[in-house]
Write a structure and sequence with these properties.
With about 210 residues, the protein is α/β, with parallel strands linked by helices. The chain has one domain. The chain contains 3 helices and 9 strands. Strands 1, 2, 3, 4, 7, 8 and 9 form a 7-stranded mixed sheet that branches. A two-stranded antiparallel sheet has the order 5-6. Strand 3, helix 2 and strand 4 form a beta-alpha-beta unit. Helix 2 runs parallel beside helix 3. The longest helix has 14 residues. The chain is globular, with a radius of gyration of 18 Å. It starts with 14 loop residues before the first strand and ends with a strand.
């Protein structure tokens, strides 16, 4: 009798769920209204609260963070941080065409490779890349895995996979989730509105010689 094939080795990466904060009906303070990453609510899948939490997530008392947003097709040069600082690149892959095609995973990997190649290297500083990927289904209902190819491509580019974040587009109200209105252009035509976004967080440290 033939022995079954062993499953492929898993990747030991923490998976964390981020729920949206409860809406605050009161006035917004200056600290709450701070926008560390330029946000366009008509184009960007990740909400502002997720960007702000990402910035806090990679900030330490000893290192300031410069956060920038990039989108597919954007070729603006990324800033080169000073030694001892941290760069956070937030890549939103929500508005890609033809993500329900069989070639979508390979295309996502190519986009990730080109994106990470643009991140400048500077001795003594750490760079983070947060890649936001919404779930999509093929016309036959199968889930299209774009996270796996994106993670493999990043590791091949010498970036360390730190965490898999699941950003939920809903906040908790007592014992139930209250979904938020889906953004225009982010509706899965074969299943349902987008209710979460996968965010893959990677790190690259440039050591001082």
């Amino acid at each position: 009798m033939r022995r079954p094939k062993a499953p492929p080795p898993g990747i030991d990466v923490p998976v964390t769920v981020w729920l949206a904060p409860t809406p605050n009906p009161g006035p917004t303070t200056a600290s709450e209204s701070a926008a560390p990453v330029a946000h366009d609510p008509t184009r960007d899948l990740l909400p502002q609260w997720a960007h702000e939490r990402l910035c806090r997530h990679v900030t330490t008392a000893a290192a300031a963070v410069t956060a920038v947003r990039v989108r597919p097709g954007d070729h603006t040069p990324l800033p080169r941080p000073a030694p001892g600082t941290r760069l956070l690149v937030v890549a939103d892959l929500g508005n890609l065409d033809n993500v329900d095609r069989p070639e979508a995973p390979a295309r996502t990997a190519r986009i990730v490779r080109r994106l990470l190649a643009r991140v400048p290297a500077a001795p003594g500083h750490t760079a983070y890349a947060a890649i936001a990927i919404p779930p999509r289904h093929a016309p036959d209902g199968r889930l299209i895995d774009r996270c796996g190819p994106a993670a493999r491509e990043a590791r091949m580019c010498d970036w360390r996979h730190l965490q898999h974040l699941i950003v939920v587009h809903a906040h908790l109200d007592t014992d139930r989730l209250v979904p938020h209105t889906p953004l225009a252009g982010h509706v899965d035509p074969y299943r349902h509105d987008v209710v979460h976004t996968d965010v893959l967080l990677f790190e690259r440290t440039e050591y001082t010689p």
